[in-house]
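Late entry, written up from scratch paper. The run itself happened at the end of the previous shift, but nothing got recorded in the book at the time, so transcribing now.
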Amino acid sequence: MSRDTISIHFVNAALAGVKRLGMDVETLLSHVGIEAELLRQAKARISPEQYTRFIKMLWMVTQDEHMGFGLQPRRLGTFAIMCQLIIHAKTLGQALELSAQFYKLFGDEWSVVLERDKHEARLVPFVPKELDPDHFITESMLMIWHGLASWLIERRIPLERVHFGYARPSHADEYDALFFAPVMQFDTQRTEITFAADYLDLPIRQTEEDLEEFLKAAPAQLLVKFKNTNSLTSRIRDVLKSQIGEEMPTLNDVASMLYLSPQTLRRRLAAEGKSYQGVKDALRRDAAIHLLLNPKLTLEDVAQQVGFSETSTFHRAFKKWTGVTPGLYRQLHGYH
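Output as recorded:
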């Protein structure tokens, strides 16, 4: 099971469409075990499994793959038909071009354009700003297209640059897991992701049989699956995961395991906007959130499993991380 968690920001942002349609948000959230009170906790987080169920629920209640954001609904099954079209392409470049042409049949307002020059390729989303105030659809389209492209060639495509045509948001730290790249800039002329053009020449590795299985969970799984695994933060999390309930290794210990000097590890973490203590806290927070969703575990059990000998210390740490106590977090997810 993934130990990552997802900021409540993305839940709030995804609800803009159904709010526009006049649907009852509290009732919708209750169907996936999320209490509306959680939306008002800026530090709150949910598991990837909860988020996937939440997105699927929005598609079902709106019968719209754009979840109520557009002026006209994008009927359910559109993504699947597009995939059935592109699965027969010879190369990734051909598949992405076919996908772009397919969606242009619905008009030019909502589209993703593939650009290519000698060394670089870019995916550029075009979404009406007034219909996407929190950039949720814009970012989701990029994650889905990047995830689909990676799935088609059976390897994660590393991004070289990510540009966002809007100001740096308060939740920008979340973007490391979603769009990690050596260069990530805000307030640029337009939003785009850039990767090496050579990937466009790689052959499609998936078959119609593979696609049938893929579509059982896609595109929702693409919003949580093909995350960055190349960052130093991700590598440190992998080292620490097996030791969550024990005494955590020191920064020097982890540096040695990764064949780095302590100074280099600190410097590279800082370049990713992270600290070693912050990585440890985030890992414990994510593990605690997953464990709290298991009603068989007491709060004392959860505290011990994430490395706290005193439950009161765990309570304080969890509230600092998420804005709510562990007990209240459980209540807000329907576990009493």
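Residues 6-74 form one domain.
(Scratch paper discarded after transcription.)
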